[in-house]
């Protein structure tokens, strides 16, 4: 009779244990701990019915689920009491007896007992005949997982990836590999790591064994989450890894503009300082931050740390909540128009979403205080780049610092390239997050996500 999915009670358990014992001839008592959790496991039970042999059923389960053994061990703990009751009932019902041989207690079938036959249980018992509990469990140990990093160069060639090799067999690919190369690498991967590669259903459909996707960033909008949920694929991201680096870069951009560093460097480099009769030079005025209004868009971890440092400079911080929900900060929360009209400096640290898309357009930028500064280290599509150029050309803005752009990598037709004055426009290629310590921290976080998953926990699951 085929195995059926009935109520997991002692009566059914008693019959299943009898069938297993019949196939094995005799069973060490602690082996029984494994039997019911194993046959009550949906994946194994279906495989045992479908596959040609027990060995093939086991191979199928461990190839499909890295955590099969871990989950089985958890199930063993949860069903020990039920197993003990089923064994007791089997003895009372004169189905099993438990003689001792050479100091070891075994389970053996009582001859002539009448019980429902389960053919698969006899086959299973025969396969595990003579094995100890440890030997049975060893059959379900997972192979070393295959980890495929689809775009490893997006973290730089100077980061330490050795931690990944301690967790599995690692395949490193570059972002420029072809679709066919990606499919080939992913087809037997258990774990996929991606930064920017779009993981759409067409690509994921080739990864039949994938269980975990690790994103080397906080945002995971390049992963098709509906597909992952449907196919029981866990997706984990990394959080809070870049705060210090982004905050530092925010001030690097601002101070470079605010203190007119490019101009004064050029003044010395040109030789004018060498021929000057004065020890100083005052032709390009700059200001102190003390007493200035610093407006922050996006008061998360990064925004809060920027606020703290701006306060240390003596600036008065205010902020705008893009969601309208973040009202609990120790700085005044103002509406967008007030922020625009009263801030001497505005720095953007918000995520990209429907509320922030094109938030800084021509209308809003031209509301900004004349002679103010705009810094964007959030997301490029929050700011209309043509509006920035227009505001600089019409002297609405004194300076703009950008680390993120509408299109990345940058495109040659960008209107930003028409501004040739580094005292008014400073741009960096999306590197605010990318201090070497930060990039190594990303790898460490990914390793923690993988090791946690392999231990049966889901860390930073999206």
Question: What does this protein structure show overall?
Answer:
The chain starts with 9 loop residues before the first helix and ends in an 8-residue tail after the last helix. With 462 residues, the chain is α/β, with parallel strands linked by helices. Helix 1 (10-24) packs across helix 5 (68-92), helix 2 (32-39) crosses helix 5 (68-92) and helix 3 (42-50) packs across helix 4 (54-64). Helices cover 39% and strands 13% of the residues. The protein has three domains: 10-138, no CATH class; 146-241 and 440-454, Rossmann fold (3-Layer(aba) Sandwich); 243-427, 3-Layer(aba) Sandwich (Rossmann fold), CATH 3.40.50.
Shape: elongated
Mean pLDDT: 91
The count of domains is 3
Tally of helical runs:
18
Number of strands: 15
Would you state the CATH class of the largest domain?
Answer: Alpha Beta
For the biggest β-sheet, the strand order reads 11-10-12-13-14-15
Radius of gyration, in Å, reads 32 Å
Strand content: 5-15%
The name CATH uses for the topology of the largest domain is Rossmann fold
CATH-defined superfamily of the largest domain: NAD(P)-binding Rossmann-like Domain
The secondary-structure class comes to alpha/beta
Q: Give the helix proportion (percent range).
A: 25-40%
Oligomer: single chain
| Corresponding CATH architecture of the largest domain | 3-Layer(aba) Sandwich
Unreliable stretches: 1-7
Largest sheet: 6 strands, parallel
End-to-end separation in angstroms reads 43 Å
